[in-house]
Every structure is written in C-alpha cells, then in structure tokens.
Amino acid sequence: MRCLTVIVPVKPLEEGKSRLRPLLSPEERRTLNGMFLRRTLAVAEELAGTSATIVVSRSEEVLTLAARRSMVALPEEPGCDLNGALEQASRVARGRGATGVLILPVDLPLATASAIRRVIADHRSRAETRCVLVSDRTGFGTNLLFQTPPALERYSYGAGSLQLHRGAAEQAGLSTVIRRDPDLAFDIDRPEDLIGWRARTSR
After folding, report:
1. Which domains occur in the chain, in start order?
2. pLDDT tens across 94-150, in order?
3. CA 133 to CA 102: how far, in whole Å?
4. Before 78, cis peptide (omega within 30)?
5. Res. 201 pLDDT band, cuts 50 70 90
C-alpha cells in the first residue's frame, strides 16, 4: 500500500490491561503487554515497513524498542490522552507525506497483515478518499481505523467511538464504510477475553 503509515499507540507496559488484574499479577500483565507489543510491531512492519510505522508512547522503554526496530519513536506530548496522542502522531504522519494512515491497537491478538489488507482493500466504491472502520465485538467501538488521505483532525476513542468516527470521517469528506471481521473484532480487554483467547490458542 503506497505511502501507508501505521500508527501504534502504546501505554507503558506496566499500565496496560489493568482490567486483567483479577487474573494476572503485575509481572504477568507486563509480560503479556510486551508480547502483544512485539506482535503488533511485527504486523505493522509487514504492512508498512519500519520507517513508516509510528509508535507513540510516554514510555521510554517502548520508544527504545521502537527505535531499535528503526521505527519512528514519538514521545507523547505532556498531558495527552489516547486521542491526543493519535492526533499528534497523525500530524507527524501527514508531515512525512503519508497518503494513508492506519491506527493499529496492540490488543488485537488475532490480527494479521493479510486480514488487515483485506478489509482495507475491500471497499465497494473503491473511492480514493475513504475511511474504513472495523468494529469491535459490541458493534459500538473502533478496533481499526484506516483513512486516505489522513483527513481526521480529531479522534473519539472511548464509548460509542464507531459512530463518532463515522460522523467525523463523513464530515471530512471521506467515503466511509464499517466492516465487521471476527478476528479483527477480537480484542483483549476483560478477564473473559483473556480466558477465551487462551482457550482458542490452546486448541
């Protein structure tokens, strides 16, 4: 995909997946987060290459790992939440000449580069200016967001983000489609998600 940039937002490894505390010790959560991060960076590299992957984080450890892989290691601006960090990274992507931007979370353990390429490319209108949104299992959240060109000035991750992103993309003039894919909809957020993923991978 020509001039695609992948943005990977990452919390400090000791902070991610806090809802899994009933099942995992702090060290186990840190290990799980590190595994998810390394897997996601490998998917991003396959999609866009290292130089077109932006890792945005306030963790020096995470940024060092990204830099060692020759990715763009972008320190979060002070006081940023997730949406602010993504807006910051999107400005950097536009400044580097990206014609398409994919937001790739680290907690999609079944996501593959081939599955992501498929949902991005499979757009009925084949419009040159488009936004593809992949929902979570509830149908209300956003698991993947692809836009070309990267026209969104603001992001709305949180409650009801799917329709908020759809509205923002349409307002920005992008032809917008919502896709549902069982593997890309599977994220690890709650203890039952982790249990289900472990059961699935142990078969």
Report:
1. 4-201 (3.90.550.10)
2. 999 999 999 999 999 999 999 999 998 865 445 678 999 999 999 999 999 999 999
3. 10
4. no
5. confident
pLDDT in tens, 7-62: 999 999 999 999 999 989 999 999 999 999 999 999 999 999 999 999 999 999 99
| pLDDT tier, 66 (very low <50, low <70, confident <90, very high otherwise) | very high
Q: What token pair was written down for 58?
A: 């306030």
Nearest to 74 by CA among 61, 92, 56, 100: 56
How, if at all, do strands 142-148 and 130-135 pair?
Answer: antiparallel
Tell me the helix, strand and coil percentages in the chain, rounded to 5. 40, 20, 40
* Tokens found for residue 151: 């026209």
Strands 100-103 and 142-148: antiparallel
Query: What does the pLDDT read at residue 126?
Result: 58
Rg (CA), the chain: 16
- Other beta carbons within 10 angstroms of residue 176's beta carbon come to 22
How far apart CA 139 and CA 162 sit, in angstroms, is: 8
Tokens 């937001």 belong to residue: 103
How are strands ordered across the β-sheet holding 142-148? 72-75, 53-57, 4-10, 100-103, 142-148, 130-135, 175-179
